[in-house]
Write a structure and sequence with these properties.
Elements (H helix, E strand, L loop, with lengths): L3 H14 L8 H14 L10 H6 L6 H21 L13 H15 L16 H8 L1
Helix pairs in contact: 1-2, 4-5
Length: 135
């Protein structure tokens, strides 16, 4: 399902099917995820389900994988140099995993494996916040 409440509702239904209403497990969440990927059509009624789209994808070749690893290494090396890290020295916080994700995203974009479309996503406004604006 496409919304958080949809996922929650599916997990609740799964738990209820197994006589555990209100006490869902990781298995219930996984079953809800599998059902959503098999049945829902987030790209429109005539579009494939996520499972269908995944099954017809073209996996990357070994050459593409090697090229991606090289690009990743280049970006990682550039970031390490910018941060002043010596060879073999671990990157220090803030969050080396976040840094790796940023480098990976950059490498995937460079290799044409990832496209980023930017659009403004406004955070939800609470009633309390809206009340403060009116004052």
């Amino acid at each position: 399902m496409s919304t958080k409440t949809g996922h929650t509702a599916s997990a609740v239904r799964e738990a209820a099917r197994h006589d555990r209403p209100g006490a869902w497990t990781a298995d219930d969440l996984e079953a809800a995820r599998c059902r959503a990927n098999a049945l829902h059509r987030p790209w429109g009624l005539d579009a494939p389900t996520p499972d269908d789209a995944w099954s017809v994808r073209t996996p990357i070749t070994t050459a593409e994988r090697v090229a991606l690893h090289r690009t990743l290494w280049v970006y990682r090396h550039q970031v390490r140099q910018k941060r002043g890290a010596r060879p073999g020295e671990p990157l220090q916080p803030p969050d080396p995993d976040a840094l790796f994700r940023a480098v990976l995203s950059q490498a995937l974009i460079q290799r044409g494996c990832l496209t980023v479309r930017r659009r403004r996503i406004a955070p939800p406004l609470s009633i309390r916040f809206l009340g403060n604006i009116a004052r």
